[in-house]
């Protein structure tokens, strides 16, 4: 029954997210799911059903992808209705999904191992080569400039400032992506983040070199 539920959920998510162009598409959901299952295996967590579902559903209520908070909540409830879950499982699932967002650094503290795994899995997909590609896809979709050196890098932001303040795709590296390695919750997440973090540093070094016309 659990595997049937997951297959039903995957088919529904593919229909909605396959052509999403901000970097939050079906393939992102699938990568986060795979990351989460890998981290769970390395961390010796065997009960992965809720982890897998939470990874697949984590972006459904995201305010970036919905016209309102209420719409996101409604969509999430519709997807969850496809699953055979107990009330306790539903409560656990909602708790994970609504706790993993970065929110400009205003994130909540986690106490659940499963939430830590899903958060790390999502953040791994925000860094490295894939993270770089997703950053520019999202920035372009939202009409954000590639880079403007006259914009100050923000070190501390409210959620509103993070969502609506003036920034650029390159600024996003400094305002979020380069911070994620230090915010990983699991030992496996920390190890997997190392190479991706270094790759971003190399990219930014090359970007600045070309931007400034240096040899």
TrEMBL record:
SUPFAM superfamilies, A to Z: HD-domain/PDEase-like
Annotated ranges, domain HD/PDEase: 21-136
InterPro entries given in the database record: HD/PDEase_dom, HD_domain
Protein name, per record: HD domain-containing protein
């Amino acid at each position: 029954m659990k595997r049937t539920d997951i297959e039903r959920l995957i088919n529904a998510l593919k229909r909605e997210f396959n052509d999403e162009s901000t970097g939050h598409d079906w393939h992102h959901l699938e990568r986060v799911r795979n990351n989460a299952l890998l981290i769970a295996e390395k961390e010796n967590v065997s009960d992965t059903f809720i982890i897998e579902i939470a990874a697949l559903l984590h972006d459904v209520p995201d305010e970036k992808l919905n016209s309102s908070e209420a719409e996101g909540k409604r969509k999430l409830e519709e997807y969850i209705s496809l699953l055979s879950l107990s009330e306790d499982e539903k409560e656990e699932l909602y708790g994970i999904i609504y706790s993993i967002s970065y929110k400009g650094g205003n994130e909540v503290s986690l106490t659940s191992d499963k939430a830590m795994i899903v958060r790390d899995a999502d953040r791994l997909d925000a860094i490295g080569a894939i993270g770089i590609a997703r950053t520019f896809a999202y920035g372009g979709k939202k009409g954000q400039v590639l880079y403007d050196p006259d914009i100050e890098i923000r070190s501390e932001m409210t959620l509103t400032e993070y969502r609506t303040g003036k920034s650029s795709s390159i600024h996003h590296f400094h305002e979020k992506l380069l911070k994620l390695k230090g915010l990983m919750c699991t030992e496996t997440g920390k190890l997997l983040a190392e190479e991706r973090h270094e790759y971003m540093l190399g990219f930014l070094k090359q970007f600045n070199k070309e931007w400034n016309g240096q040899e």
